[in-house]
């Protein structure tokens, strides 16, 4: 597949049935589906100098495959998503495990049977575990906020420990907010697991890592005779948004537009900026085989960073004598700073601002916002893929 750097002077939007803005999951899935299922000629415009969006990975100068924008752990319950992505990659059998460093002791998270005994001692931990089983049943996930609502003193003891030692400080570092200020869709992602399975996604039937890496998967996905990919191209430089149409390169564009970027930036933040959290990634290569026992260790009671990722533990790469780790520091996103907007800060005020931007594109002909940024929500990789597949279905049906 040829990836073009920049947009040639000869670029003619009228040669394309669809323009896709962004070469991450949402954009790449739509490009592939429409090219092969509807025969669309597709131009993919990517602002960065690479494809794969935040899933981009590469081999660093020490020969270690790393994820530039933080660890991406593939897991899904969605068979359609898994079948589609599996066309473009083989998978390893990686099963993600996370430990929390709680006052120097490494405990599995989500907090589980093993964690209880490490935190409270074998005897008391077993008593508390049996109370959880009696109340909720085995192999169940219980969100922290739900557990704290119980009046049982034993359950309150567990809830208070997990809340204070696993959730509270980590959440404040990650979001810059107290837990009661955060949308329940976020707090609900931090459950207790009533069972012995130490995997982070114990019930997901499809898990693993792309055997050759994420970037290679995207290269295969975009490798189609009807798809042209242009990197280093900011769509805002060639888009002009009207009342009902989008001009591209000064011409009224009559094809489909799939837009995966931030809606506020499309309008130069003229209603105000949508808030996000961003991350500073600090990479370090160490002269040792292995730094930590699992791919990710969360620092929930100490340190300024939120977690350390060790990539060889996830990819299964064998490279004796060296390993690369990455620390993550969370802080507020500043538009125009070159930072990456990672996590939408979802609250009623911000949602209302997003809806005002969304209203301005609803009347645009054949303009489709899709993905984590364009929809201003938190999406796992499989959910973005599912959303893009559904949008593709709609566009294909309209042209059938």
From TrEMBL:
Keywords: FAD, Flavoprotein, Isomerase. Residues 166-378 form the UDP-galactopyranose mutase C-terminal domain. Its cofactor is FAD. Its EC number is 5.4.99.9. SUPFAM superfamilies: FAD-linked reductases, C-terminal domain, Nucleotide-binding domain. The keyword Cell division does not apply. GO terms for molecular function: UDP-galactopyranose mutase activity. InterPro entries: UDP-GALP_mutase (IPR004379), UDP-GalPyranose_mutase_C (IPR015899). Belongs to the UDP-galactopyranose/dTDP-fucopyranose mutase family. This is UDP-galactopyranose mutase.
């Amino acid at each position: 597949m040829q990836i073009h750097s920049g947009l040639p002077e000869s670029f003619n939007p009228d040669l394309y049935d669809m323009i896709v803005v962004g070469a991450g999951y949402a954009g790449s899935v739509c490009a592939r589906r429409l090219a092969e299922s509807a025969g669309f000629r597709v131009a993919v415009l990517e602002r960065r100098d690479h494809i794969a969006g935040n899933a981009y990975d590469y081999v660093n100068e020490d020969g270690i495959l790393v994820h530039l924008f933080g660890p991406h752990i593939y897991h899904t319950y969605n068979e359609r998503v898994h079948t589609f992505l599996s066309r473009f990659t083989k998978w390893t059998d990686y099963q993600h495990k996370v430990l929390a460093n709680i006052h120097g002791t490494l405990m599995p998270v989500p907090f589980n049977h093993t964690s209880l005994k490490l935190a409270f001692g074998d005897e008391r931990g077993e008593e508390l575990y049996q109370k959880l089983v009696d109340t909720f049943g085995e192999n169940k996930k219980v969100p922290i906020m739900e557990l704290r609502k119980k009046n049982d003193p034993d359950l309150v003891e567990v809830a208070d420990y997990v809340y204070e030692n696993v959730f509270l400080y980590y959440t404040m570092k990650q979001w810059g907010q107290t837990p009661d200020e955060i949308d329940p869709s976020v707090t609900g992602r931090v459950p207790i697991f009533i069972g012995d399975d130490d995997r982070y996604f114990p019930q997901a039937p499809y898990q693993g890592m792309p055997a050759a890496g994420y970037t290679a998967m995207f290269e295969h996905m975009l490798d189609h005779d009807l798809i042209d990919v242009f990197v280093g191209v900011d769509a805002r430089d060639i888009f002009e948004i009207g009342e009902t149409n989008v001009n591209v390169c000064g011409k009224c564009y009559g094809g489909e537009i799939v837009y995966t970027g931030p809606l506020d930036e499309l309008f130069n933040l003229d209603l105000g900026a949508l808030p996000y959290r961003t991350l500073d990634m600090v990479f370090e290569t160490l002269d040792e085989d292995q730094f930590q026992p699992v791919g990710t260790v969360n620092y929930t009671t100490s340190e300024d960073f939120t977690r350390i990722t060790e990539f060889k533990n996830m990819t299964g790469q064998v490279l004796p004598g060296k390993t690369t780790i990455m620390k993550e520091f969370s802080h507020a996103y500043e538009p125009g700073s070159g930072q990456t907007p990672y996590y939408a800060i979802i609250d009623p005020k911000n949602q209302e601002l997003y809806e005002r931007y969304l209203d301005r594109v609803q009347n645009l002909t054949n303009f489709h916002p899709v993905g984590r940024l364009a929809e201003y929500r938190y999406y796992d990789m499989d959910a973005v893929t599912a959303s893009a597949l559904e949008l593709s279905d709609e566009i294909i049906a309209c042209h059938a």
